[in-house]
Each structure stands twice: as structure tokens, then as C-alpha cells.
Amino acid sequence: MSGKSMMKWPKQITSCFVERLICSEKDLDKAISIFDAATAEYSNGFRHDHNTFGLMIRRLLSANKFVPAEDMLVRMKQEKCDISEDIFLSIYRAYARDHKPREVLRVFGKMKEYKCEPTTKSYVTVFSILVDESQLKMAFQFYRYMRERGIPASVVSLNVLIKALCKSSGTLDSAFRIFHEMPKHGHTPDSYTYGTLINGLCRTGRTLEAKELLIDMEANGCSPQLLPIVA
């Protein structure tokens, strides 16, 4: 059934109108039909923008429809539609939910093909996904690549690095070296930093040190109520 026969379209439509239609349609296939029908109905006028494309890509990703979602990216490029970093971040997170870190790296590597320059947010997101998926060799390689590309260290990126180092008893001391160096470079450890280290100590049986670090944490004004549970 064509988009024209499915619904009665007004004489003029806007991106906001199409977004509302897509959002109100719970069935993904019907949402796709609405998306396609908008340009079919107004072939001489309406064009999808980054908002409608982005919405449709997120809908596809929520259903793990990765290939159609990436096809939408190609279509955006062909139609000379600006592609924002947020769209790529959505794709990274969707692949992460499906435990596909290599796909995250693959898509990251294609950002510049779509004239989208990755910012610190993309680098740290990809780095964090690799660590969460315990792909530590790739994670450390990616961190080195980040630094080579001039991405500055931050509390957020250092927390991810500390989390990676806390995953093994053999690198836990390296995590503490970074922790102690943070203030020297203008980075103040936060509750997540402390919590990650405390979890690492507890996992390796170093409970006395964990208790001492908890005292240090409270003395430095970090709330133990915000301690993360690190896998």
C-alpha cells in the first residue's frame, strides 16, 4: 500500500509535521512508509533534513536494524544533508547495546567520509565502549590514537582509562599512578574515579586499601553515595 493511500496529507508539510507523524506511529514499518511517503507526496518541494533523518535512524537502531540505519546515512550524504555527530553517537551506542565494538570502530572510521569531524565526545564514547566490552587491547590502542590526534585528557577520559586499568590486578597500580597524577595536571578526581578504584581494590582482595581510599574520598568532598558499580 502506498503512502498516499495510507493517509490524507495536507497541502504543505514541514519537517516538524513529519517528525510528529513518525513519532506517533509505533509500528516501525509504518513509520518507514510515512518517511518515504513524505518525499513521494511532495517530490517537488519537501526534503528530509537532519531532524527527520536522525529520528528515522534512531527508530531503526532501536529495533537493531543496523543496515537500514546506515543506508539512511548514505542517503543523507547523497542528498547533501548535514550529518551531525549526534547521529553517529546514536549508532555507536546501538552497536554497543548489541555488544559489537568492532562495528563501533568501523563506523567511527567512516565519520570523515560523511564530512563529520569527530569531537572529544565521539573519541571518549568509543573508548568507553571498548572498555565496557573488555576489548582492552583495542581500547589502549584507541587511547594512544586519541592522544596522537591531540585529544586532550579530561576527568571523563581519565576515568575511562582508570576503569580499563582496574579490570586486571596486573595493571591496578598503573590506575593509581594516573589517579595520583591527575591533580598535577588540573584534573580533580570525582566520585566515579574513587568508586572505580575502590571496586578494583575490592575485586582483588585489597579491602584495607579500599577502606582507606573511601576515607580519603570523603575527606576530599566526594560523596560515597555516588559510588559506581563497575563491572
Kindly describe this structure.
- The protein is elongated and about 70 Å long.
- α6 (85-97) packs parallel to α8 (120-132) and α7 runs antiparallel to α8 (120-132).
- 64% of the residues lie in helices and 0% in strands.
- The chain contains 13 helices and no strands.
- With 231 residues, it is mostly helical.
- The chain folds into three domains: 9-83; 85-152; 155-231.
Write the layout of secondary structure elements.
Layout: H1 3-6, H2 15-24, H3 28-41, H4 50-62, H5 66-78, H6 85-97, H7 101-108, H8 120-132, H9 136-148, H10 155-165, H11 172-181, H12 191-203, H13 207-219
Helix pairs in contact: 2-3, 2-4, 3-4, 4-5, 4-6, 6-7, 6-8, 7-8, 8-9, 8-10, 10-11, 10-12, 11-12, 12-13
Protein name: Pentatricopeptide repeat-containing protein
Family: Belongs to the PPR family. P subfamily.
Organism: Sesamum angustifolium
